[in-house]
Each structure stands twice: as C-alpha cells, then as structure tokens.
Amino acid sequence: MNANKPLAGNVLPLPGASSAHQQLAHFIRLGETGHRIVEALLAENRFPARRVVVDASRYHQQRELVDALRAADIEIVLDTKCAELAAQAMYQGYARGAPWSAIAGDKPLDESYFSKKSRGQVIQQIEIVANMDMV
Fold this sequence. Notes:
The chain contains four helices and three strands. The protein is an alpha/beta fold.
C-alpha cells in the first residue's frame, strides 16, 4: 500500500443520518425498603424505568405498589425465588416469604414439586399470583 495515497476510497458512509442505537433494557428491583422511593417517584410521575422486578418473598408487603406500577403500564417481572427455595443453605432465609414456599414444608423444594406427577404444585401457585396479581 502506498503511504502517500489517500484512503478515502476505502471508507464507506454509514446508511441513514440517524443513530442506530437502542435503549438498554433497564430493570429496577424492588428491594426490602427501596420500594418506598419507587412509590414516591411514581406518585410524582418521576419514575424513570419502564420495567421492575418484584421479589415474590416481598410481594405481600408491596402489593399496592405493584398495583400502581401495573396501572402505570410498567412491565413487571416476578422473581419466584425457586432457586433459593431449592437450595439447602438458603431455603429457610428470606425467600420463605414466597407464597409457594410452604408447599415443601420444612425442607427445600426439589424437582418433584415441579413435575407433572405432583401436578406442578409450585407452578400452579406461581401462575395464580402472576395471573391474578401481576398481569
């Protein structure tokens, strides 16, 4: 390649005058106490996110906020806490607040609670919460 020759012939213009950037999917996780801030921002019409994650173990305490988010057409994702409820070291922690945690009694969830044989007890409970309260 000749060092004195301009490279302009090798440069292709980008199509269109507008930027092809898309907004990053931004989720806010409602926490144990941070949901109060979300409530205030939502009431002031200053809540910037369009998506939130609701922790199933905190759902009963945050139900009014979830209803308000739904009314504001905010996308709501339910964190079921099934992974925590299935882990020996974690099932007795705060995840026990999930409405379906009592299905297994005083032991972690295992695959039998999700099988067709058990009629998907956990799945049915999640669907009830998702269909009645979250959607």
